[in-house]
Amino acid sequence: MIKELLTIESALELYVGIDLSSIRIKRKSFNISCPFHDDKYPSFTIWPKGRVWKCWAGCGSGDVINLIAAFFNIPNNQAIKLLANDLGIVNERSKLTIPPQYFYKAKKQKMEREMLEAFKKRYNEAFFRLLAIEKAMKEKTLSIKSIEKAEEKSLLYHHLPYLAHLLDVLVEGNFDDQVDTVLIIESILNGG
Ligand SMILES: [Zn+2]
Fold first, then answer.
1. Are 37 and 31 within 8 A, CB to CB?
2. CA 50 / ligand 1 centre spacing (Å)
């Protein structure tokens, strides 16, 4: 129940005080600086879907309960009590009650996940279509041999670096830049 209600990311934000809003979205996992040791290079990996974490420098690993136990330096059963209390989980005759704000939080998280999923679809569409266009342009450029086609060739050469730039931002940019770039690509592809 605790693991279902509280993600590793939420626990890091609520208990450890780590702001994850600027973290790059990756496919399966992402890294942050470990909150448990002096970490120059982010060695704390979070797998959002699996709801597990691991510090590769040896601070530990596990689920959200292990995370809270490690952060407060308490045994797991105390971490469970602490979290159950904070989450308002009351075990009366095996019936669990949760205060409304946690339903709200869970709903909000679900909505954010759905928005992210919708964005991922648009991102993939934009990325692969642009990649195909870049490939086609490169091949066309290579096949241009006649002088008559020089004008077209220069046009392609003007566009290729821009396409490469857009693809770079999609791969390496931060989340805000990726959103902007997807919108730019969509407007280009729609002839806008
Ligand atoms: Zn660590």
1. no
2. 19
Q: What is the pLDDT of residues 48-89, one digit of tens each?
A: 999 999 999 999 999 999 999 998 888 998 888 888 888 877
- Helices 64-72 and 76-86 sit at what angle, rounded to 10 degrees? 110
Question: pLDDT for 163-191, tens place per residue?
Answer: 888 999 999 888 888 998 998 888 877 76
**Separation of CA 72 and ligand 1 centre (Å):** 14
What distance in angstroms lies between residue 97's CA and the mean position of ligand 1's atoms? 35
Residues with CB under 5 A from ligand 1 (ion): 34, 36-37, 55, 57, 59
Provide the phi-psi class of 8: left if phi over 0, else alpha when psi is between -120 and 50, else beta. alpha
Q: What is the pTM of this model?
A: 0.48
Centre of ligand 1 to C-alpha 35, Å, is: 6
